[in-house]
Write a structure and sequence with these properties.
single chain, alpha+beta, DNA Polymerase III, Chain A, domain 2, 2 domains, four-stranded antiparallel beta sheet, 4 helices, 15% helix, 40% strand
Length: 265
Amino acid sequence: MKCLPAEDFPQIPKPNDFIYTAIKSQMLNDLIQKTSYSIGSDDLRKNLTGIFFDMTNSKKIKLVSTDGHRMSTVEDEFENNSQIESFLLSKKAATELKKFALESEVVQIGTNKNFFICDNGQTSILSRLIDVKFPDYAQVVPSAKTNTFRVDRNEMLSLLQRVSVVLSEKTKGARISIGPQELEIKTTSDDGETTELISIKERASELTDAVLEVGFNVRYLIDALSSFAEEEVSVCINDEVSPACIYSEQEGEIKQLAVIMPMRV
């Protein structure tokens, strides 16, 4: 049998080459689920084609992804006892990891210079890390919240799905008018026009009673809202050129955040 020389095969790191830490499988699955929708697919922007595991806080784990038009972040309590450094995992690896993790209650995750490993006690999966720097995602988030409100998540989702019926690949956007007590969402295309209204709560704005109008990609809004589990979410849209921030809080701190850039409609 003709074979290739063994030395030509890429060197695979051994399990002992990694620094490990334990994490609950359900937590890992949920974190990936809440951020995987905004992973980029442009191979020319390699640093946007995966999920960034921000491990800088030894008491928390934070996952971030972005495709340049939207961004998602989520964090949870986590003891990084082994001081694993932050890393960037590819979309394919994250998808496989999400399925693999649920085969046991707790898994061990680890990294070395170039690879990521996840071990459930019986089986390990290994993936090469994306070897480019992830963008400074903190710069995308507005430093001040001057126009915020709360909205029923499921009601907003249903509304967006209805208005998306008339949209096409050419016309993806909706014009959102934010009033003192309600939102008006309007979409227009060659197939027709739709207008929907939804009540909002706890609006806090420096714009007093002024109506703010801004356009967003409807599909991006649907994807973002679908990633949350809460019945109500908070929304911040400061002005016509600022991104929409959809977020949930726990004890006064943002636990999950979706950022969506505005578009011309």
